[in-house]
Specification:
The chain is α/β, with parallel strands linked by helices. 37% of the residues lie in helices and 25% in strands. The protein folds into 2 domains: 41-292, SGNH hydrolase (Rossmann fold), CATH 3.40.50.1110; 313-426, Copper amine oxidase-like, N-terminal domain (Copper Amine Oxidase, Chain A, domain 1, 2-Layer Sandwich), CATH 3.30.457.10. Helix 2 (70-80) crosses helix 13 and helix 8 (168-196) packs parallel to helix 10. Residues 314-425 form the Copper amine oxidase-like N-terminal domain.
Length: 427
């Protein structure tokens, strides 16, 4: 599940009911079905920490808005690459590196979390919620396999306004002061995190420069030089704290924003810059490429012209490509089972006498009968949202079965991204 804070909810997973079909006669079996001896699937626990970039903030958002930033995209990419994954997004609006140091120290020590103790004057209206969920946050951190951090923008925001009035020497002195503070605070925050979780992979983003050249004017080169100094400092910091058994890596986001600031950034004031949706996708790409090598989107994003786009099914990291496209019926989505059985490595048989389908996967057996509002999983009856039914397709009669119940009964993980209109099915 996705951890959320208060009413300002991270983009959540929806329970999606699919119906799969296979021919009303015969059996289907994968070439290499998974056996009961298979190892239990692991879940990639992802925790994101930091400022409003982590939180996924965009201009105009309210407490009722759903964020869709780099954190949520990182979760989708884990699903897209065939992994079970959960997300705890703990991005705090307006957080500085000093605030991150204080926040992680409070989590480590179990002390009070409030605006006054973490960062006086911080403006995030969800601070009480963060305080109430401190124990869960610490537990999420302790169990995480991946911790991603964006921090530093609020430390340097004054430079965006002041750079044009500073000489090169003054700017350099100001940047060096900020870098010293950044190094001290982030190093301490990483030590706090390591005290909670000694082995998780930590990825720290460098600080990109958000101001377009047309907007910055003669200050642009100065700001780019400052960003380069921050990247060098981040690289050096990480080199000092990384270990083979507990890696700390740098996500080089700044290079992706250079020269593209106008399309990747909202400009809402002299010091308030946040990524556009394209900007958040760009940040997510940097993290994703480090972790899995490629950033994926459904093929319909490249080929479909209709709105909304057709639904996509991704099974164990592979997009289902079949003539039998998903069909919406009664607000639910239906798909032929034969394709899914093959993709999952399951096996299935059909019994004409009982009008039932039997599906076997990883030592579990599910039996679903036409018209029944229950299915049997390893001998136990469970409710299904939509009963199985027969439907003629050309000269063939096919049996349609409820995937959400089937996947749960057989131990599959089913997640759905409304933004991608994609269901992810992972063993």
């Amino acid at each position: 599940m996705i951890r959320t804070h208060g009413k300002w909810r991270a983009a959540g997973c929806l329970l999606l009911v699919f119906i799969l079909s296979f021919g009303a006669q015969g059996a289907y079996a994968a070439a290499s079905p998974v056996t009961a001896a298979s190892a239990a699937p692991e879940t990639l626990g992802i925790v994101t920490l930091g400022d409003s970039i982590t939180a996924g903030y965009e201009p105009g958002m309210t407490l009722n808005s759903q964020a869709y930033g780099y954190s949520e995209r990182l979760l989708e990419q884990a699903w897209f690459h065939g992994q079970r994954a959960t997300l705890g997004n703990y991005g705090i609006l307006g957080l500085t590196t000093a605030g991150l140091r204080n926040y992680t120290a409070a989590l480590k020590d179990g002390t009070t979390i409030s605006a006054s103790t973490i960062q006086p004057g911080i403006s995030d209206p969800r601070m009480d919620d963060f305080a109430a969920k401190a124990a869960q946050t610490k537990a999420d951190l302790a169990g995480a396999k991946l911790i991603a951090i964006t921090i530093g923008g609020n430390d340097v925001s004054s430079l965006l306004l002041d750079a044009k009035n500073l000489t090169d020497a003054e700017l350099q002195a100001r940047v060096q002061q900020m870098l010293a503070s950044y190094t001290t605070n982030v190093t301490a925050a990483l030590e706090n995190i390591r005290a909670i979780n000694p082995t998780a992979t930590i990825i720290l983003a460098d600080q990109y420069q958000p101001v377009p050249s047309l907007y910055a004017g003669s200050s642009y080169s100065k700001l780019m030089s400052a960003a380069a100094s921050f990247t060098q400092t981040t690289d050096a910091l990480v080199q000092q704290v990384t270990r083979t058994d507990a890696p700390v890596l740098v996500a080089h986001v700044a290079a992706r924003f250079a020269g593209q600031e106008s399309s990747l950034t909202h400009i809402i004031s002299h010091t308030d810059f946040h990524p556009t949706q394209l900007g958040y996708e760009t940040i997510a790409k940097v993290f994703t490429e480090m972790l899995w090598g490629d950033y994926r989107v459904p093929s319909t994003f490249l080929t479909a012209t209709a709105s909304p786009r057709p639904m996509t099914i991704v099974v164990n990291g592979t997009e289902l490509n079949t003539p039998n496209k998903p069909i919406n019926k009664g607000g639910q989505n239906f798909l032929p089972l034969a394709d899914i059985v093959k993709a999952m490595g399951a096996s299935g048989t059909w019994d004409n006498k009982t009008s039932s389908a039997t599906i076997v996967y990883s030592g579990r057996t599910a039996v679903i009968t036409i018209g029944s509002k229950t299915m049997t999983v390893n001998g136990q009856k469970v409710q299904v949202v939509g009963p199985a039914f027969l439907q003629k397709s050309g000269k063939e009669v096919k049996t349609y079965l409820p995937l959400a119940a089937l996947a749960s009964g057989l131990g599959f993980d089913v997640q759905y991204s409304a933004q991608l209109r994609t269901a992810f099915i992972n063993p």
